[in-house]
Amino acid sequence: MTKSYHVAVVGATGAVGTQMIQLLEDVTFPIKEVSLLSSARSAGKKLTFRGEEVVIKEAKPDSFKGVDIALFSAGGSISKQFAKDAVAHGAVMIDNTSAYRMDPEVPLVVPEVNPHALRDHKGIIANPNCSTIQMVAALQPIREAFGLDRIIVSTYQAVSGSGIQAIDELQTQSQAILSGEDFAPAVMPVKGDKRHFQIAFNALPQIDVFTDNDYTYEEMKMVNETKKIMEDEAMKVAATCVRIPVVSGHSESVYIEVDQDNVTVAQIKELLEKAPGVVLQDDPATQLYPHAADAAGKKEVFVGRIRRDLDNPRGFHMWIVSDNLLKGAAWNSIQIAESLVEQGII
Amino acid sequence: MTKSYHVAVVGATGAVGTQMIQLLEDVTFPIKEVSLLSSARSAGKKLTFRGEEVVIKEAKPDSFKGVDIALFSAGGSISKQFAKDAVAHGAVMIDNTSAYRMDPEVPLVVPEVNPHALRDHKGIIANPNCSTIQMVAALQPIREAFGLDRIIVSTYQAVSGSGIQAIDELQTQSQAILSGEDFAPAVMPVKGDKRHFQIAFNALPQIDVFTDNDYTYEEMKMVNETKKIMEDEAMKVAATCVRIPVVSGHSESVYIEVDQDNVTVAQIKELLEKAPGVVLQDDPATQLYPHAADAAGKKEVFVGRIRRDLDNPRGFHMWIVSDNLLKGAAWNSIQIAESLVEQGII
C-alpha cells in the first residue's frame, strides 16, 4: 500500500494558497487528510476538497499535530511564528516566503535544478522567489551543458505576486482610468512602503523595498537565490525588477554568457526542447514566442526569443515566461512535496 | 527682424502629428505659416492653430511649394513618396519615420547628442526611433565623460508608438477583459504582421517584424541607430524590445559598461543632473525613480535607479523613461528644427 500524507496549507485564502489547494486537488499526490489554515479573520470559511467539505481553521501552534507536510504561504512573519511548532510536531515545512531562503541550514529548491538538496533538510525547505524559479529552471539545462558565467535579467512582473489586494488595485484602477474617474494608489508598488504609485497602464521599477546598495530586495533575492540554487557563488548575476500591469505571468528578458566558445542557438533550443518543465516556444517566422497571457494557468516555464548577442560570441538573449503563482510559487511547492516522496525522504 | 518659417506637418491627424502641432503652438519657434497635411481620408478637418483656423489638406507633390521645414510623421511610404517633392521645393524635411534613418547621406540627429551632424544635411534629416532617442540622450553625458563600451537594453514600450489604432485597441481590450467580454486582437503587436495577440494585461516581446537574425527591426533600430548617432560603430549594443500595456511613456532597463575604472554612481548622477534635456529622479530612500505615468506629457528624459553592477566594476544599471510621442518623436523633431535655426543652417 502506498503511503499517504496529512498535508496542511497555511494561508489557504491567499492568492498562492488558493492555487496550492487547487493543485492538490488535481495532482495524484497521495493525501490522507488536508488541513486548511488561515488567520482568525478568514477562519470558518468552507471549501470543497476532493468532494468533501473542509472548514478553514485559524492557524495555531497545535494545528500541526499529525501533519506530515505543511505548505506555508501566508507571509514571512507567519512562517516564523509557526516554524518551530510545525517542525516540532514532525511536519516538513515547505515555505513559500522569503523567511528562510538564505538560511544556510535550509535547502532552497527548484526540483528541476537541485532536488538533491532536499536530502539535507532539517525540517524546513524553502521555495524560492517566483522570478528566480522560472529563470533557473530555464537556464539549468544550458548551465549543465555549457557552464554559465553571467546573468543579467530585467523582469516584467505581474501584480499577483503581491497578493489579492494588488490584483484588486490593478483592476479597479484600470477601470477608473478607462472611465475617467479619480483613484488613489494604496497598494503598489509595495504595500508596506511609504509611497504608492499608479500601476494600471504604467511600469514601476520597484518590487519589495530598497536595500542598502540601492538594489531592491526582489533584485537581491534573484541574485542571491540563483547563486544558492545553482550552488555557484562566483556566478555573476544582476537583476532589475519591474512591476507591470499584468495579473498573472512573469516575463523576463535574460542575457547570459556561457563558459564555452562555439555554442549555437540550435544547441540551446535542442536542450530546452528536452528539458523537464520547460516548453520551447521559439519561431520568429510564425511569431511564436511566450507571453504572460498565454502562460497564465499553466505549470511550465516557457522560453523563446533565443538569439546570439551581436558582439559577444558567448552571449545569448532570451525571453522566459511562467505563471508566477504556479511554477513561481504553488506548483514548485507541490513539486517539492512530490520530490520528497519520490526520493523517499518523507 | 527675426526670420520666420513656413512649416508643414505631414500626418497631421496621427498620434505624433497631433503632438507636433501642439508643440508648435506652444514653443517660441518663429512660424510664418503652417500647412497641415494628411491623407485624402482625413483632409478637410479643421484645427485652430495660434488662434487661426487651419484646414487640413491632402498631401500632394505641390503641397511643399514655399515650405521651409516639412515635418513628416505619416509612415515610411508617405515619406518616400514625397521626399523628392519636398526637397525639390527647397524644404528641409525632418522625417520621423524609419525610411531614411540608416541612409549614409542623411543625418540622424538627437540635438543633445550630435547637433553638428545637421550641418551635413542634403535636404533630409532623420528623427531616430523613439526608444533610441531617450537612451542616447541619457547616455551621452556618461559617454562623453567616461567612454561607453557596451549597452544591453530591455525596453518596456507604450502602445502609442504604434499609433492611434493601437491606443484604441489597448483601451477597448482592457475594458472587455475587465467586463468579462470577448475580444479579438487585430492590431498588436504589429498591425501588418500575420498574427495578433492580446496586449491588455500582457507583455509582448515583439515590436515591428522580425529580421533575418531573429532580432526584430525595432531591436536592430536601437542597435544601428545608437551606433550612428554616437558615431561609434565598434560600440557593443544589444536590445530586447517589449510592448507593455501603457498608453504613453517608454521605459528602459539599461546596462552599460564604461571605458574607465573607478567611475562612481555619484559621478554619473552629477553628470546627469547637469545634462540638457535630462532629469535625474533617483533617491531610493524616498522611492524616487522615473515611471511612465509620471513622464507622460513631459519633454524631458528621466533617469533613475542608477547603481553599480554587482560584479563588473565598470558596469552600471539604470532606468530611463520618456514620453515616446514627445522626446521620442514630435519634440525631438521640433528640437531639430530649432537647432537648424540656432546653428544658422536654415
TrEMBL record, chains A, B:
InterPro entries, sorted: Asp-semialdehyde_DH_CS (IPR000319), Asp_semialdehyde_DH (IPR012080), Asp_semialdehyde_DH_beta (IPR005986), NAD(P)-bd_dom_sf (IPR036291), Semialdehyde_DH_NAD-bd (IPR000534), Semialdhyde_DH_dimer_dom (IPR012280)
Highest taxon in the source lineage: Bacteria
Catalysed reactions, semicolon-separated: L-aspartate 4-semialdehyde + phosphate + NADP(+) = 4-phospho-L-aspartate + NADPH + H(+)
A GO BP entry: threonine biosynthetic process
Residues that hold phosphate according to the record: 101
Class of enzymatic activity (EC top level): oxidoreductase
Keyword Nuclease: no
EC identifiers of the protein: 1.2.1.11
Domain Semialdehyde dehydrogenase NAD-binding: from-to ranges: 6-121
Pathway: Amino-acid biosynthesis; L-methionine biosynthesis via de novo pathway; L-homoserine from L-aspartate: step 2/3; Amino-acid biosynthesis; L-lysine biosynthesis via DAP pathway; (S)-tetrahydrodipicolinate from L-aspartate: step 2/4; Amino-acid biosynthesis; L-threonine biosynthesis; L-threonine from L-aspartate: step 2/5
NCBIfam families named in the record: asd_B (TIGR01296), PRK14874.1 (NF011456)
Subunit structure as annotated in this protein's UniProt entry: Homodimer.
Matching HAMAP family: ASADH (MF_02121)
Entry protein name: Aspartate-semialdehyde dehydrogenase
Species this chain originates from: Listeria riparia FSL S10-1204
Gene it is expressed from: asd
